[in-house]
Design goal:
Blueprint (H helix, E strand, L loop, with lengths): L4 E3 L1 H4 L3 E5 L5 E5 L6 E3 L11 H5 L23 H16 L5 E6 L8 H20 L10 H4 L9 E8 L3 E8 L6 H16 L8 E5 L5 H15 L8 E3 L5 E3 H5 L16 E3 L5 H7 L17 H20 L4
Antiparallel strand pairs: 1-4, 2-3, 5-7, 5-8, 6-7, 6-11, 9-10
Helix pairs in contact: 3-10, 4-6
Length: 326
Amino acid sequence: MFGFVLMSGRRWDHCRKMTPVANDEFLYSPITPDTDVLLSSVSSASLLAPANEVEDWDWDLPYIPTGTVRWRPSRLRNEVGLLYDAMSFMNWQYSRVFNTHVTLTFSKMCIGDHREAARLMPHWNKEMKRWLAIGPDKSRKRWKKRVRAAEPSPHLWVYVFENGRDKGFHAHQLCCVPDSQVKAFEAHTLAWWRREAWIDFPADAIEVRHCRTYDEKSGYERQVEWFRYLIKSAARDFGYFGLDGQVHSVDEIFKLAPYWETNPVYSPRLHGICHELSMKKRREAGFVSKLGSCELDEVYSGWEFDARRERIKAEETAAFLATLNI
């Protein structure tokens, strides 16, 4: 293999290079991120470490970040309201529920840098948005098998980062995936992250849990269960005002799942929300959640679906009246 590749030390922080051994098999060994790496016109074999260095490598060594590191608490605060508003808006605007929960364990992918993981998350979601948009009218040769039965679907998602005691730095994402494409979604996600990590990490580094939505009520209840788990790292001393003028804690409002105190992180953010569910889109639609209106007892009532039906009915009535010459 020949070619020119220039990548900064930070980009190589989490990568692994392949060491050739007998029978054209490969092992992996770490690339040291001390300086920028220039791979010039030489064969890949001359750049690889001896196999015995791979055998002696301790994969359990903690990653030590380099460069400018700004640590921050891993507790969610105002992010809780932003995430809830995004979920509520999706129910109200699209009449959809989050039916898929994806857990990404970056330590198992050998991505030790919190900043690198945070940088890659939007790129992965951009790729999955493109992937889910492919249908019979946008066939691609490499997606031919999936496209035959695929229907285009919007990629709606929210995610949070956590720094757990057991998993270390990882992400939880809620999103919408058509029932018929779950296996393909999981396979494409695994392949994409393996390419970015430059290592064939174990498949259990990515867990995709999907729940078929048989009816509106059961689908919404599962979404609420997952959302409570998603925001379990919220600071319990943070809260929102209710109609009584008092501040109520997020634990009281959202009935959070139990959570232990965790280590700080140095990622630039703790959460992400897709553009379709952003604050800008909510304002343009004139949407106000029950959290925004201080009706805290109604946050999990599922009011969004009834409101959408009433809105559609009103729009149809207005359109019909506009056709009458009265």
